[in-house]
Amino acid sequence: MDVPILDKAAAALCITSCSVQNCGTGLCKKSRTEDYRIASSDIGGQIIISEPISASKRCQFSHASTNVLSMKWFVWKDMSRDFLLSLHSGDTLILWNTDNGEKIWSVSYNVPLFDLAIDPFDPCHASFSSLGCNIALCSDISFNNTPSSTCRTVVICEEQIKSATSIQNLVYHNAYRNILFVVTQSQVHCFHTELFAVLFSMTHEPNIISWLCCSSSDAIFSVQAGGAVSLRVGKFSSNDERADAQFALERIAFGDIQRQGNQQRAVGACLCPVTQSLQELYIAIAISGAIQYLALE
By its UniProt entry, which SUPFAM superfamilies does this protein fall under (predicted)? Predict the structure, then answer.
């Protein structure tokens, strides 16, 4: 199979993000070739917008003297898919027009920020990982107006490390509103963004590189650096003798992908957006320069 190679960066790439395609309404089949875009950032802070089908560069831009920490495509009221949110060193969030590289707005926050997640049900809401096991919540992200420089900080758990972040993954649930998963080195915390409460915390497997939530069901996949994949579903339990109830995630399946040796490590994974609502689901896992597909029935 011939795969286009995008070699437009002058330095090593550190972050990539594929444009959002509304596959659930059939727009993927009607989209033009130029509608598919990939944003990539190199270690020098340059952001490159490419068209993967033609392997051509569309635009390139940067924010002076900063590195890119996270990038997310920003869909505002579904009027266009040309906008990109990027979190830069110096706790700066920027909204770009990727069609021409224009900076729409820029805001510098008053707390340290390391990663970015956008609410899939409301693009006005965004979450950031901050120092220790803290997160910062922002509710005024907009295309028309620059957000305020203040956000609400929430302590998810107490951590001894205060000079850096302990959060490895920050992921919204794609099937249920107001659910944010905060994944640390040893635990995952389920946080309700409207109640500002941790619903439950649980221990997970070591070396989690990706935490993936289905968009059409209560199914969550975790991928480890060694290539192991776990499937979890939500679990609710109650006690008739006491007025209490507990939420949790129950692991119902476990699998492993083939590796050529123990030195090979998985570096990233994603769910296929088309098959999530079908009986079969595919996970793409990048391992040491190759991509393997795992089919789950």
Answer: WD40 repeat-like
Rg (alpha carbons) of the chain, rounded to whole number: 19
Q: Is residue 47 part of a domain?
A: no
**Residue 126 maps to a domain:** no
d(CA 170, CA 177): 15
- CA 213 to chain centroid, in Å, comes to 10
Q: What is the pTM of this model?
A: 0.85
Neighbouring CB atoms inside 10 A of 123's CB total 20
Q: How many domains does the chain have?
A: 1
Q: Give the three-state DSSP class for 78.
A: coil
In a domain, 201, yes or no: no
How many Å apart are CA 9 and CA 211, to the nearest integer? 28
3-state SS record for 131-143:
CECEEEEECCCCC
Q: What is the pLDDT of residues 41-86, one digit of tens each?
A: 988 999 999 887 777 888 899 999 999 999 999 988 766 668 999 9
Q: Each residue of 281-295: pLDDT tens digit?
A: 666 666 655 667 677
Residue range(s) defining the domain that contains residue 273: 206-297
User: How far are the Cα atoms of 161, 229, 258, 266, 285 from residue 295, in angstroms, in the given order?
Assistant: 39, 11, 13, 17, 11
Is 198 within the bounds of a domain?
no
